[in-house]
Each structure stands twice: as C-alpha cells, then as structure tokens.
Amino acid sequence: MTDLESLLNDRLAAAFAAVAGEAVDPVVRRSQHADFQADGALPLARRLGRAPREIAADALGRADLADLVATAEISGPGFINLKLRDDALAGLLAAMSRDERLGVPTTAAPETVVIDYSAPNVAKEMHAGHLRTTVIGDAAARTLDWLGHDVRRANHVGDWGTPFGMLIEHLLDLGETDAAHDLSIGDLNAFYQSARMKFDADPAFAERSRQRVVALQSGDPATLRLWRLLVDESEKHCLAVYTKLGVTLTAEHFCGESYYNDMLAPVVDALDGLGLLRESDGALCVFPQGFTGRDGEPMPIIVRKRDGGYGYGATDLAAIRHRTQDLKATRLLYVVGSPQHQHLEMVFQTAREAGWLSEPARAVHVGFGQVLGADGKKLASRAGDAVMLMDLLDEAVARAAAIVENNPDLDADTRAEVARMVGIGAIKYVDLSSDRIKDYSFNWDRMLSFSGDTGAYLQYTYARINSIFRRGGVVPDRAAAVLLDSPAERALAMELLGFAAVVADAGATMQFHRLAGYLQGLAGAYTAFYDSCPVLKADGPVRASRLLLCDLTARVVAQGLDLLGIEAPERM
Ligand code: ARG
Predict the structure, then answer these.
(1) How far apart are the first and last CA of the chain?
(2) What is the CATH number of domain 389-563?
(3) How much of the chain is helix, strand and coil, in % rounded to 5?
(4) For residue 185, what pLDDT is reported?
(5) Residues 6 or more apart whose Cβ sits within 8 Å of residue 350
(6) Whose CA is nearest to atom 6 of ligand 1?
(7) Peptide bond before residue 339 is cis, with ω within 30 degrees of 0
(8) Is 4-84 CATH 1.10.10.10?
(9) CA–CA separation, 203 vs 385, rounded Å?
(10) What does the pLDDT look like over 352-376, one tens digit per residue?
C-alpha cells in the first residue's frame, strides 16, 4: 500500500479506538501546517467529556507511527500535526515506482456495476446535450473497470415508442432506396423533422402513424424490419460519434428501450401481484412512497397508458429488475441529466417496494448540469438550434490543429494526432473538471490553452517529461533508489503518494473534478520540481532518483488522464 492517507488513518484509528474503547474516525487530511493533520480528538472529546488536547496526547502516545512519522505535535484546540519521515516517503515511492498499478490496489470487494449512460434517442442526431452523459459515464466505466469491478455498459437508447410510427410511415412514403440517402449519417435530423412536419400537417399521415405504432408493438414482422432499418442507421451514427469522441462504448453496449419490450407485461403483472398498481383515468400507475406533487397528492409513474401502450417509466422498471435480478448487479449508476432526477428516484423507490432493489444492491442517479455557450445561455448554433455533437468535436479538433500547426518539431501526421488528442481532450477535460452538478460554459480559448486548468496543460506535462527522456537518450530505472533532499522533491513525492486515495474517491463518488484537480496539483508540483532540480545535468544516484520522479509523474498523469478518457501524446 502506498496510500499515505489510509496508512496514517489505520494506525491512528487503532490508537483512538484504544482511547475510546470503540471505533473512531481519526479524521486524517492533508494540512497546510504539516504534511497531514488528524482532527479526530475534537468530536471524541465532546463524546467523552474530556479535554480534546488531552485526548490527542493520549492517542498519540498509543499510536504506532515511528516508522512513518518524523514529528508529531498537538496544536490549537487538539489537532494532531504530523510530519512524515523522508525515508518513509522514499520507501513508499520506490514501491509505487515498481508497481504496474502505481500503488492503486484493485478493489477488495468487486461488484457487478451497471452504468446507464449516453442513451440518445434514435433517429435524431446526437447533440451537445448528450456530451455530458457520454463523457462522465465513460470516465465512470474506465475508473470502475480499472479498480477491478465487473462493469456493464448499458446504452439505454430511446429506440421504441410512438415516434417510430411516423418515422416508419415517412420511410415508406420516400421509398426505402431513396430514403437510404436521407437517412445517412448527418441527415437524420432532416429525416426526423420532415416526418414530424407531415405528422403535424396531415391528419391522414398522423392516423397511419398511430396505426403503425400498434403494428410495431404487436410485433408485425414487416413493421419490425423497417424499424430495424431506422435503428441500425441511427446506431451507425452514434458509433461514429463514439469513435471520434474516443469513448469505450461499442455496438455490443446498445441495450435500448426495445430490449425490455417482452419484459413489460410480466413487470406489470408482478407489480399487480404485489398490490402496487392502481388505476387512474384508465391508466395503470404505481405511486411510490414519499413523492407528492405541489397539491399534496401522491405522484404516479404511469406503467400502462390508457391505450394499452407502455411508457418510459415501465421500461425503466423492467430495466432495473433485469439489472438486479438477471445481471445480479449490486451497483446501478444512472448518468442522466438533473431534470430526470425525480423520475429516477421514483423508479428506484418503486423497485425497492417491489423487492427488486435491496441491500446490497443500490441505485444512484449520477446527475449533471447543462453545457452553456460562452454567453452563459444554453449552447446553441448561430441559427439557434442545438449544436450537433459531431460538429462540436470537429470544431475542437480544428481549433487544436490551428494551435499545433505552429510547432515546427512535429511532422504532419503527428500534428494531426496531437490535434485530435488535444481537441477531444479539451472537451472532456472541461466537462470532467467542473463540479458535475453545476452548469459549465464553453470557452474555446480557455479550454485549449496549454497553461492553466486545462487538459492540454496535463498533456503538455506528460509530453515534456517524455522529451527529457528523448533528449537525454535515457530509459529511467524504475527500481532506482529514491532520494528526497530538496523541498521540491519532497513536495512532489507527497503529491504522487496521494494518487491511490484520489482514484478510490472518484470510484466511490463519481466526482471526477477532484481527480482533475489532483492532476493539476501534481503537474504544478512537477513544474516547481523541474524548475529547481536539474535532472539530466545531475549525477549518479541523484540523477537516477530524479529520473524516477519524472517517470512516476508521467505515469500518474497518463493513468489519471486515461481514467478520464483523455489520451496523452508523447510529444506536442
Ligand atoms: N433516452 C433518454 C433521454 O434522451 C435517456 C435515458 C436515460 N436512462 C434511463 N434508464 N432512463 O432522455
């Protein structure tokens, strides 16, 4: 274990427990005044009715810290300030350097985790609104994968329901061969919009469309074939976006609403058998506990509509049952925008009442705010429409290319690769580095800057370290002894040793902005180190140790970026 915080935590927890006669959280955190501080004496003192400083001293007296801690002091009302031994830091770093996993253990309790993300509606092009769920969901999938969980990516695409009536009729009107052109990637929206326009303007078309929905839901083979054509075309478009975006979603992860079609009737029967269904205006509804509208009336999820059709809610109930009972998942993450919070919480509550979501299984809504334009309003094209995701990605890469073009050291192919990584990385980084639940705004110049809180700065840190190795013609020795003689080396060591705790936190909370912030802090500590400690010009063991620090920094930056789904170029 190279995770300092948990090491200190374990040792102090044992000491505090000896004082209190029960388990106590020592409340260990990084400190301005020392390396770490432990604040556990304060709440414990209140509980035991003793002086906090006295408790701190008592705990410290019992703590087994000699191999880790150089000095321990009690300050203020009863904080314990700890300064670590340099040889302890060096030893931990040496172990981290030799470890493929950089000191990050795989989880002791692997789970099957379903991550429900991306999920665009079929036959509409993906727009900027799909960016966040796709990017955040992918970071979640990568992180939990790396921590050793069995991750099931579930792309709950909207591939079923009433819009397909009009889409299929429109397809028939155009003729399949002609439609093949209009349907092609990029023209999906036009296809959808002309169907929509006809539906609104032509009552006969609208009626045909409604009948077509019935034919679709009753499984008419000719209708299903046309439906499949539409879904396939749309999936092709999504996959093109995923490839460009560099996310780990592939064709095998499509598990849209249609997948649950055969499970809907059994789910309704099961809810009925449990006495959870009530009729309301001819529709069958569940009223999960704890949800009331403004008027104080209980709020429904409509599971079967008056016309016999099933809705979005019914599908979500079938999906949650499938995920816990068939897939045996114990952790369900729904990476969906904040406006759907209430819907999802109602689905979770219904599933709990039905016995489909019980310990150890739990469901979490991983919500997020909106993407705004530089003007602070919802991101829109000049014409005021939603911005197509593909266009947004192309623009990012083009803007990055304009910056990279100035670098005479790169050949044309490398420039194109770097522009792709920097442009796509900028988009992902701005998303993941902001507090998920808040809105954020696009500002191209800031996002693509090589300095400041950007993905490009982290990529640059990685490339710069690689350029040191190239210039020196060296391969760093990962088993070299670590020497931490200067304050900058020591500060960098402290940052590096924080990696494991940060990854564990991201895997538990899906708060990726803390991982992003950590990487920024690390890159900053590296810059300070590089400014004050010569590497290639140093000699012997000092040089080997500094090369190891450079190498470890590069590895942590690359691994951290990889968890965020961002690639790091060797040169840029
Ligand atoms: N297709 C939905 C939409 O575009 C998102 C689906 C989210 N996942 C879910 N299980 N409801 O709004």
Answers:
(1) 34
(2) 1.10.730.10
(3) 55, 10, 30
(4) 46
(5) 271, 276, 286, 288, 301, 317
(6) 119
(7) no
(8) no
(9) 27
(10) 999 999 999 999 999 999 999 888 8
From the number of C-beta atoms within 10 Å of its C-beta (0-12, 13-18, 19+), residue 340 rates as middle
User: What are the residue ranges spanned by the domains of the chain?
Assistant: 4-84, 163-229, 389-563
The confidence score (pLDDT) of residue 179 equals: 58
Residue for token digits 């560099």?
A: 246
The whole-angstrom separation of Cα 68 and Cα 86 is 9
DSSP string, 74-95: EETTTEEEEEE-HHHHHHHHHH
User: Which atom of ligand 1 is found nearest the CA of 319?
Assistant: 10
Q: How confident is the model at residue 183 (pLDDT cuts 50, 70, 90)?
A: low
User: Whose CA is closest to atom 5 on ligand 1?
Assistant: 119
Q: How many CB atoms lie within 10 A of CB 121?
A: 17
pLDDT tens, residue by residue, 249-308: 999 999 999 999 999 999 999 999 999 999 999 999 999 999 999 899 999 999 999 988
Residues with CB under 6 A from ligand 1: 116, 119, 121, 156, 158, 316, 319, 334, 336
Structure tokens belonging to residue 73: 């002091």
Hey, what amino acid is at 350? T
Q: What is the 345 CA–ligand 1 centroid distance (Å)?
A: 14
Q: How confident is the model at residue 176 (pLDDT cuts 50, 70, 90)?
A: confident
Give CA–CA dist 219/225, Å, rounded. Answer: 10
Q: At what angle do helices 131-146 and 412-432 cross, to 10 degrees?
A: 90
Q: Give this prediction's pTM.
A: 0.94
Distance CA 122, CA 131 (A): 16
Q: Is 208 left (phi over 0), alpha (psi -120 to 50) or beta?
A: alpha
Q: Are 569 and 417 in contact (CB under 8 A)?
A: yes
